[in-house]
Structures are given as C-alpha cells and as structure tokens.
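U., I forgot to send this yesterday:
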Amino acid sequence: MAIHSVNTDDYTRQLQQKVERLREAYGDYTDLDPEVFPSPPSHYRLRAEFKIWQEQGRAHYAMYRQGEYKKPFIIEEFTVGAGLINRLMPLVLEAVNTSEVLRKRLFSAEFLTTLGGDALVTLIYHKKLDEDWESAARALQEKLGFPVLGRSRKQKVVLERDYVTERLQIGDKTYQYKQVEGSFTQPNGEICRAMIGWAKDVCKESRGDLLELYCGNGNFTIPLSEHFDKVLATEISKVSVNSAQENIRANGVNNLDIVRLSSEEFTQAIDKVRPFRRLRDIDLERYDFSTVLVDPPRAGLDADTCAMVARFPRILYISCNPETQLENLAELSKTHRVERFAIFDQFPYTDHTESGLLLVRK
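Result:
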C-alpha cells in the first residue's frame, strides 16, 4: 500500500485552510494578513526514515501508523520524498535483496539528501557489523555514488563520511552547510530557503548586535550575520555546535561567536545568576543587542527565557508549533507588537505549520 502518495491537486485548498485557521488563532494579537510561503506540492522532503519489513527472505520499505506497530504498510512510492531519495530507494533495496549480508537483521534505512544534490544512506541493524558487511556496503556505496553508513547497538561504521553538504541559494548568495547524520536539519529544503530569505528581509535594515538561541548548525545565524555588527549564538547540542563552527569557517563569517549553552543557562548567564566556563572568552558587556532570534523546540520558550527575550527591542520568533508560540505571545504582547507575520508550510498534507513573527517593542 502506497501510504505516501499524495493528492497534489488538493494542496492549495489544504494550505488555505491552514492559513485561515492560523489567521483566526493569531487574531487577538494582529490583524496583519500573513505572508504565506507554500511548499512544493510533491518531492519536498529531504530526509526519510523507513522501517524494513522482512518477509519470505525479502526486505521491503515500510511504515507504521501510530498504535498499529504489528501492521506494516509497505511503501511502493514516496511522492513526498525528494527526487534523489526516490532515485536511491530502489537501488538500495535491490542491493539489500541480492546480498544476504546486507539484508540479514536489517531493520531500518534512512536517507539524508540536500537541495544541492548530496546524499547519505544509513542502514541500521540488529547485529554486529563485521568485515563482510563492510565489504558489501562498500560495493553498494560505489554503485550509489554516495556514502553509506552502518549502525547497530554501540556501533557506527563510517565508510567515507557521516554528513552531507548543503548549498542554499538565498538571493544572489550561496551558503554552505555541513549537516551531520542524526542531527537536526530542516526537512523541507525549499521552505528552509524561504524562512532564511524572510528572516534576512526582516533584518535587512538592522542595527547593533544579534543574539540567537537554539541556533543549530547555523542555518539562520550565518546568513543573518551580514545584517549585524556582531552575533552571539547558543546551542546545546555538541554535534550541532561543532557543525556550526565548521559552517562559520566555510562561509567566511568573522563576526559570529557560538557557545554551547541551553537557553535556560544563557538566561542565568546574562542575569549574572552564575558564571559559565563556556563563556570565559565571551564578554557579554561588549554586546549591544538590538534583536534576539529564537527558534525553539515544540515546547516553546520556558517562562524565564520568555521574560529574558522580552527585554530586547526586536524579537524574531520562528516556531514549529504555533500553539506554544501563541502561549508565549500572550506574555510577549504585553511589551511588544506584531510587525511581521509569516506562515511557512513546512509539512504539507498535515496539520503542522511553521510560523514566523517579528515583534517590536511598543
């Protein structure tokens, strides 16, 4: 059953329903018409994770509906997936089904691709990966023309590399990003480009310095650094911080510092509640922050962080969960007004939507 075949003819209607729902939800805080950024109606997803269903000596891509984990749905086509994912899927499956070494105890396959045409395939097993597996995987890697990575319990076998390199064209400039397997990356590449482009437009006439919380691998940070004197960004994931440092160098950025802190820790640091060794080379007093950018997880901003960002003249708030953004907006609207409002259809054919707000102090 092809559970990921979508009706692209119905896309515009579904998007309009989302827009109307969010316009109403934000109506207590703004009467602005949202700037709407639609997704490509198909082949928009740059990463995919499939279970492997094994039956009668053959492997199949499969997914499970929530609560029905013993009833697999075999994937025969994946129209939401990027074109490169769809090209690689049958090649990987053919190799797995003609190699007992690759097929035996394989339980998951993951694809990570980019708009720039790079890809990484990860095969995950319930067995120890030995030299025979490595030999078969190298043959698959040569056939695909892209790196293959193997995982099992307490084991990671990197044959060539464990990352892809993305190149995003934003306006007249191209930005380069290292995206490591297993770390967070934006799943919808065209919407990622739209979000960065919108954020750059919001910040194009900025003054002073930028603070960014939850910066990830520098997805927003690096392009926005062009619009500020200095930038300080924080991220808790060590893998993402390391990637961000490499991306800073790859893009030739020299006004940006990244430190590994959670938003809660940074709030404590800026409030001088306690010192952090990770900030020993950062003098917070030398920054003249005019803008704060937050792109928090689905839980939104905690109360202390929300109170801290309310001190900034401008708040750029990107959210993957409008419900928690609205909860934060109930507090932030006491000090700020909505000046820009955007809707990014990161996840077509679902109820999920990404939203962006520029809040300016009243």
